[in-house]
Design brief:
The complex is a heterodimer.
Chain A lengths: L5 H25 L16 H6 L3 H34 L5 H7 L2 H4 L2 H15 L5 H25 L4 H8 L4 H29 L3 H6 L7 H11 L4 H23 L4
Chain B lengths: L3 E10 L2 E11 L4 E5 L6 H9 L6 E6 L2 E2 L10 E4 L11 H11 L4 H14 L15 H13 L5 E5 L7 H18 L2 E6 L2 H7 L2 E6 L2 E6 L1 H6 L4 H6 L4 E10 L4 E5 L4 E4 L10 E6 L5 E3 L7 E12 L3 E8 L4 E7 L12 E6 L4 E4 L2
Parallel strand pairs in B: 3-8, 3-9, 6-7, 7-8
Antiparallel strand pairs in B: 1-2, 1-4, 4-5, 9-10, 11-12, 11-14, 12-13, 14-20, 15-19, 16-17, 16-19, 17-18
Helix pairs in contact in B: 2-3, 2-4, 3-4
Classes of the chains: A mainly alpha, B alpha+beta.
Chain lengths: 257, 357
């Protein structure tokens, strides 16, 4: 970057950031506004956050989201990790096909995936249920896990495991003592990513949630349709900050040693 | 006793023979080189010995035990990869202790052994260093220490000096030989660098296309190459095509396709009249203003010269157009023959080798 034109670059970055964050910051600012009608000027008040503590629907929805995200994360991280290991370390029949098949869950709109799953689960007799949601969430978050763990694994030397074996480590010990510790930052990052993917997921939850069960994104959506107060902003602000922290920790983990 | 014996070893990938009916014996305590170009199969053979790959046919012995069915982690064969493969998440101590921990040695014993081996490789006190704080030469010595501390029966090295710069390479050559002698471990190393093979090993096996071409001590392989490939792969050779004209008691007369008459050495069983090849090593070709009258002496013109510091490479052409390379010692700038000089290119009869193709 030449000194003369670096200001242009800075302006470009600022504009991009403003474009991205202005709506979010506005939304967050309004959560501290006393007026239930989003009137300006902003009068600072924490009442919506206090209100939140009594809002059973929103709290239940948040707990549902968290619980679902946790179980999704554990499952998809485990499965995705195995898949990444297979892809990174072994040659097997159908390897390229397998790699290709991991892409659609990311590229096909989740709206379509959600509808398709609903049709499938109805056929199977599962219908809308927590189990269906769980399966749906795991399905769409596995590719992210595979991507992150695979990237981490590709950066490590397969010779390390062979060296460990030449020193007397069985394949299992070599994995536990050498491969896994090196993979760990990637696995943790993938765990956090898949948690975020599940927590923020709207489409799959919307289509597969049984009556009476909502997740936070779905609940916020309903609130917007029906009429809402800045209590929605409050929970959205909390969720946003929480997700930011999760993703930041995750991205630190994807850096190499 | 830890000699390694290989019998009828074959490994195919698809239609290609990576290792084609390999038969080899590496004696106890020997420093043995598997020398060959990329893709020759040398790495395949090493991985088969280590157990990371299963042969299609053949038997591998370590000592008097057949190890074909034994998994790599039970073969007690130490290995050092070309990039050393030090565990990045562990300290030097932990790296070296790795094999000892698996063998469940006591903490005190482990500490003692690690200390001892670090002294052997002249890196005492390096226990707490991180692997990324080490230079290339240090990394290699740690990798070596790690492999040797578990007392393996055989040591396998993959291009041991490949990643080092020239000065370091010369130091490590001496180091490696010293360590190997001191421990007395049967060692097999794989390399494409013929200089590495010649300087380090007790014996060399030259490999190409999955087959062993020649096995012998460095002097034999260099001075009596079995065929063109070996003559060309080890060091440099000038090749002259032609046919054997006459086989006498103490020399063989060779006539080149351009009519040059050469006095050579070779096997008296060589068929004469047939198309054949002669190889003359450049360092054995002497050039001077006045003929010294070696058996082979021809007028030549200096076409080109390369100044290498320690010596000079001359590109000569003889009167019939034959081109020859010669290496001369650098005896000072006033002794350099400039381009265009008329000189005599000469070599002894013993230096003129007739080869089987």
């Amino acid at each position: 970057m030449r000194g003369r034109h670096s200001w242009l670059f800075v302006i470009y970055i600022l504009v991009t950031l403003i474009f991205l964050y202005a709506p979010i910051l506005t939304m967050m600012a309004m959560s501290f506004n006393r007026s239930p009608f989003y009137e300006l000027p902003i009068q600072f008040d924490l009442k919506w956050y206090q209100n939140l503590a009594y809002n059973k629907r929103l709290i239940q929805a948040t707990l549902n989201s968290a619980g679902l995200a946790l179980s999704t994360s554990i499952t998809s991280t485990f499965l995705g990790m195995l898949a990444a290991l297979a892809l990174a370390r072994y040659q097997f029949r159908g390897r390229s096909l397998f790699q290709i098949l991991l892409i659609p869950p990311i590229s096909i709109p989740w709206l379509i995936i959600g509808v398709s799953m609903l049709l499938l689960f109805n056929l199977l007799g599962l219908g809308r249920s927590l189990v269906s949601m769980y399966i749906g969430h795991v399905a769409v978050s596995i590719p992210y896990v595979v991507l992150v763990v695979y990237a981490r694994l590709s950066g490590t030397d397969p010779g390390l495991e062979e060296t460990a074996m030449s020193l007397g480590a069985s394949p299992a010990i070599a994995f536990i003592k050498v491969t896994f510790p090196l993979m760990l930052p990637g696995v943790l990052a993938a765990g956090l990513f898949s948690f975020a993917v599940s927590f923020d997921n709207f489409s799959i939850s919307y289509f597969l949630a049984p009556p009476g069960v909502t997740t936070l994104p779905v609940e916020i959506y309903s609130a917007i349709r029906k009429g809402f107060t800045p209590v929605v902003n409050a929970i959205a602000t909390i969720t946003f900050l929480f997700s930011m922290v999760v993703v930041l920790i995750a991205s630190k983990g994807t850096r190499d040693i | 006793m830890s000699r390694v014996k290989i019998e009828g070893l074959t490994k195919k990938y698809g239609k290609v023979f990576a290792a084609d009916n390999i038969n080899l014996v590496v004696e106890d305590k020997e420093l043995f080189a598997l020398l060959g170009p990329s893709g020759s199969g040398k790495t395949t053979i090493m991985r088969l010995i280590a157990g990371f790959s299963k042969p299609d046919t053949g038997t591998i012995w370590s000592g008097d035990k057949v190890i074909n069915e034994i998994p790599p982690h039970k073969r007690n064969i130490g290995m050092v990869f070309q990039n050393y493969a030090l565990f990045p998440h562990m300290s030097v101590f932990e790296n070296i202790a790795f094999g000892l921990r698996i063998r469940r040695l006591s903490s005190t014993e482990i500490k003692k052994q690690v200390g001892k081996i670090l002294e052997l490789v002249q890196l005492a006190g390096f226990e707490n260093r991180r692997t990324n704080q080490l230079s290339g030469g240090q990394q290699q010595r740690i990798a070596l220490a790690r492999a040797l501390v578990t007392n393996p029966r055989v040591l396998l090295l993959d291009e041991p000096l490949g990643a080092l710069d020239k000065k370091l390479r010369m130091e490590m050559q001496v180091e490696l030989k010293r360590i190997q002698r001191e421990i007395g471990i049967t060692t097999i190393f794989v390399t494409h660098d013929q200089e590495e093979a010649l300087t380090l090993s007790d014996r060399i096996a030259v490999i190409n296309n999955g087959k062993i071409i020649q096995v012998g001590i460095p002097t034999d392989v260099y001075e009596y190459p079995a065929n063109r490939f070996v003559a060309d792969f080890l060091g440099y050779s000038n090749f002259i095509e032609g046919r054997i004209d006459e086989v006498r008691e103490d020399e063989i007369i060779f006539v080149s396709s351009t009519g040059l008459i050469l006095k050579c050495r070779g096997n008296i069983n060589m068929p004469f009249g047939k198309h054949s090849l002669v190889a003359i090593r450049p360092e054995k070709v002497s050039i001077s203003k006045a003929p010294k009258l070696y058996s082979n002496s021809f007028e030549a013109i200096v076409e080109h010269l390369v100044y290498m510091g320690t010596g000079i490479t001359y590109h000569l052409s003889l009167q019939d157009g034959t081109r020859l390379l010669t290496f001369e010692r650098n005896e000072g700038p006033s002794n350099v023959f400039p381009i265009g000089s008329k000189v005599y290119a000469e070599w002894r009869q013993e230096s003129c080798m007739i080869l089987a193709e």
